[in-house]
Amino acid sequence: MRILLLLIMLVTVSARAQVAINTDGSDPDNSALLDVKSTSKGVLFPRMTTSEREAIATPATGLTVYDLTTQSYWYYNGIAWAILGNSPWSVTGNNIFNNNSGNVGIGTDTPNGKLHLVSTSHTNLNIQGSSTIGTWLTMGNTSAGGKWYNLISTGSANGEGPGKLLFISGSSAYSAENLVMAFGTSGNVGIATSAPNPSAALDVSSTSRGFLPPRMTTAQRNAISAPVEGLLVFNTDEKALNMFTGTEWSSLMPVPAFECGLNVTVNHLVSGGVAPVPKTVTYSTVNGIPGEPTKCWITQNLGADRQATAVSDATEASAGWYWQFNRKQGFKHDGATRTPNTTWVSPNNGNSDWVAANDPCALELGAGWRLPTESEWTNVENSGNWTNWNGPWNSALKLHAAGTLLPSNGSLGSRGSWGFYWSSSQFNAYDAMLLYIYSVDCLVGYTSKEFGFSARCVRDN
Q1: Is 398 helix (H, G, I), strand (E, B) or coil?
Q2: In a domain? residue 66
Q3: DSSP code, position 256
Q4: How do strand 95-97 and strand 104-106 relate by DSSP bridges?
């Protein structure tokens, strides 16, 4: 009888098949099929090892057990067993957080960072914020003196306009002075400005700092493989910006107003199709030459390393380079080999003067420089009363017997005994005008355009 009374006291079964287990005889809650109430004891689920749990045949969805092996509750979700207890996540109000030292993987079970996302398809990672404020992706060190770095997708309520992407540093709040980079709505980039100019692919803004391009020597610059047209570097040898024009490197050093009497230093490059070999040459300049006193001349042959040491100087260093008439490609001859050793142009005909686009003086020395005309050579010869090679040699031009490349095959001839200097004027389709000098003769005449002669450059002062 006592046992029966005890059961009646502990278990109350409602007419709706609800069960209450308690010591106060209260009815089960209307929402509960089983209502267990106690202030001193808990509910003990079935306990088993992992192997025993996994041996349960056809577990029902929602079936729950305590796993003695893992020391956690497990439930069957209809497909597989899932852990219920010992979750690494904690909840405070509306916040969820993880204070463990492990990593989180999405799409991978071996994360190698605090958050590691892996996708085998084109799956988007969406970080979406307020439609008016924008979205913030923040990285930083919260310790003393640490910095925040923020990647911000702007909205319409922050003063920057929607659609921009800002990268700022210095604090966790946006401040213009800490702006590092901005990506505009047109695909352009601003550095230290949140509003890159629409016409600029890159807009750099500063009132206290400059733009520093790559710095390198001439040799390092020349070693750049396949430079693209417009490529910029700072040449530490020249102390100037250099730009690749598509065919050669060009110095962007400010060009002062030309003053005759100053030296002209030229970095000759083979890439321009004029110089036969690369080298740097400094040319002296002079004016006041009788017959053409207002013109400015270089005092050594184009391509020569130096001014000749004598009228009969037969060295390659003093001779410089040779050209066929109205052709821009120059040739070096060291006495044994011509460079470039290409097929010699013969015949070399054409019914025109030397055109500006092929003038080696303009192409190598710069705008304003050119080959002298027939009349300029004639004026200088007549005014100087040049009757043999002593006249041109003793003048300020220091013309000497630099020789020729022969019209048949471009071989070297007469170096040290004859000097031949092209004018830009043709005589006819086959011949052109030149100044030639010899020990007993000096005159302006004409000969075949197939010869290779020296170039002495001139410009209007």
Answers
A1: coil
A2: yes
A3: P
A4: unpaired
